[in-house]
């Protein structure tokens, strides 16, 4: 299985990522997920800054990809996470999976996002009309891990 | 020497990115180091007593009872919020 992870300030291109995931002829299914900066319900969001722990972040993403590989037969995993300051509707994260069949690709994509949200050392700070706030971790994100136990 | 890093909200609240602790070549549990750091001020006491505090040794998430040695990189941070 090929694993690619990147932590970068630059944007990423979905078409390029999809192209990379299609290189293995044994894989008949590609599933991709992209996460975007979204507006808040109660106040205007000007943007957010993503901080990370350089070195640990990349290793954590590789570990998560390898855990997925142990659970499902995967041809390729690509994970990209952006850091720095991003504006609403900008892309934050990409997870792409290539596998022989769709069930494994869908499941691995969800598994990787669930673990990324709980294990990879990234932190979001929102810049809003009411000030700057560090985002609190959600209990629902932690709860999501229980389905993989 | 043990290098201790702080990230995100914790870094801001402590106003500290990095702290170098002289370990005199000894191994010690993270919990002992935490107690030393907490004694620095009321603010450090408060911030490092949070129940959701996470800890990494040499860039791997570990429980607080893990032992560290001279040359290790220790990090404390709040729950992660990426994705």
Integer average pLDDT of chain A: 97
Indicate the radius of gyration of chain A in whole angstroms. 16 Å
* Count of discrete structural domains of chain A: 1
> Mind telling me which CATH architecture of chain B this is?
Roll
Domain count of chain B: the total is 1
Helix content of chain A: 25-40%
Coarse shape of chain B: globular
The helix content of chain B, as a percent range, equals 25-40%
CATH architecture of chain A: Alpha-Beta Complex
- For the termini of chain A, the CA-CA separation is 23 Å
DSSP helical segment count of chain A: 4
Order of helices and strands of chain A: EHEEHEEEHEEH
* Alpha plus pi helix count of chain B: 3
Poorly predicted runs of 5 or more residues of chain A: none
CATH names the topology of chain B as Ubiquitin-like (UB roll)
CATH class of chain B: Alpha Beta
What does this structure look like?
- The complex is a heterodimer of chains A (149) and B (83).
- By secondary structure, chain A is an alpha+beta fold.
- In chain A, 32% of the residues lie in helices and 37% in strands.
- Chain A has helices at residues 14-21, 56-71, 102-119, 139-144, and strands at residues 2-8, 29-36, 45-52, 74-82, 84-86, 91-99, 122-128, 131-134.
- In chain A, the strands form 2 sheets. Chain A has a 4-stranded mixed sheet, sandwiched between helices. Chain A has a 4-stranded antiparallel sheet with strand order 5-3-7-8, with no helix packed on it.
- In chain A, helix 2 (56-71) packs antiparallel against helix 3 (102-119).
- In chain A, 33% of the residues are buried.
- The mean pLDDT of chain A is 97.
- With 83 residues, chain B is α+β, with helices and mostly antiparallel strands.
- Helix content of chain B is 27%, strand content 29%.
- Chain B has a 5-stranded mixed sheet with strand order 2-1-7-4-5. A two-stranded antiparallel ribbon of chain B has the order 3-6.
- The longest helix of chain B has 9 residues, at 30-38.
- Classes of the chains: A alpha+beta (149), B alpha+beta (83).
- Chain A binds chain B through residues 35, 50-53, 55-56, 59-60, 81, 92-93, 113, 116-125, 134-137, 141, and chain B through 5, 7-9, 12, 52, 56, 59-61, 75, 77-83.
């Amino acid at each position: 299985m090929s694993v690619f992870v990147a932590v970068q300030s630059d944007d990423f291109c979905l078409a390029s990522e999809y192209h990379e995931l299609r290189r293995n002829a044994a894989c008949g299914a590609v599933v991709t997920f992209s996460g975007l900066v979204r507006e808040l319900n109660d106040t205007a969001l000007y943007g957010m800054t993503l901080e990370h722990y350089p070195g640990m972040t990349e290793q954590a993403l590789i570990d998560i990809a390898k855990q997925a590989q142990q659970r499902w037969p995967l041809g390729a995993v690509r994970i990209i996470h952006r850091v720095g300051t991003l504006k609403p509707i900008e892309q934050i994260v990409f997870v792409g999976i290539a596998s022989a069949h769709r069930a494994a690709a869908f499941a691995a994509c969800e598994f990787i996002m669930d673990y990324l949200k709980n294990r990879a050392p990234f932190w979001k700070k929102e810049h809003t009309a009411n000030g700057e706030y560090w985002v609190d971790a959600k209990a629902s994100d932690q709860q999501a891990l229980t389905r993989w136990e | 020497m043990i290098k201790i890093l702080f990230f995100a909200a914790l870094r801001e609240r402590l106003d500290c990115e990095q702290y170098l602790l002289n370990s005199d070549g000894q191994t010690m549990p993270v919990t002992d180091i935490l107690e030393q750091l907490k004694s620095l001020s009321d603010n450090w006491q408060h911030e490092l007593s949070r129940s959701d505090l996470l800890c990494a040794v040499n860039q791997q998430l570990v429980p607080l009872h893990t032992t560290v040695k001279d040359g290790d990189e220790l990090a404390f941070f709040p729950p992660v919020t990426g994705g």
